[in-house]
Design goal:
This protein is mainly beta. It has a single domain, classed as Immunoglobulin-like, CATH 2.60.40. It has one helix and ten strands, in the order αββββββββββ. The strands form two sheets. It has a five-stranded antiparallel β-sheet with strand order 1-2-8-4-5, with no helix packed on it. The longest helix has 14 residues. The radius of gyration is 17 Å and the shape is globular.
Length: 145
């Protein structure tokens, strides 16, 4: 039983993941579209009530319009910015929710309307996301301009 439990824990840990895609990998590029996909256990595809806090390198403006951030292809309800952190509020919980817990995907797209910019120097940079007690990270490569 103990080894079975270890296998299940290892499997659950490896199922969580994050991918980050940029519209441009050029240093100092502006109006960069950032797509973040988080994979974690969800109830019937509902991403959960906790907001997502994205920590991005490079230029993050003081404000980001909610319409410039898509949550699973729909405009975000609310977006706030503090330094390099963008907090995105999740959609409301459906009134009827099944009892199925499966690996789900949460896709956040920060469009060009958010006016994000890449770091000024080429290199490897860490992008982080936190959703409740879950923590995700991924590296992006920025190339010289």
């Amino acid at each position: 039983m103990r080894s079975l439990l270890c296998v299940l824990v290892a499997s659950a840990a490896s199922a969580n993941g994050m991918t980050v895609t940029l519209s441009s990998h050029t240093a100092a590029a502006r109006q960069v579209r950032v797509t973040v996909v988080l994979r974690y256990e969800q109830q019937c595809g509902y991403p959960g009530a906790a907001p997502v806090v994205l920590t991005l390198p490079g230029h993050v403006p003081a404000t980001v319009p909610a319409a410039a951030v898509l949550v699973n292809d729909k405009p975000a309800r609310k977006v706030s910015v503090r330094g390099h952190n963008i907090t995105v509020t999740m959609p409301p919980r459906p009134q009827i929710l099944c009892d199925s817990i499966t690996l789900g995907r949460l896709t956040l797209v920060v469009t060009q309307g958010a006016a994000l910019g890449n770091p000024a120097a080429a290199g490897s940079y860490l992008v982080q996301a936190h959703k409740g007690s879950l923590a995700f990270s991924s590296r992006i490569a920025i190339k010289p301009s």
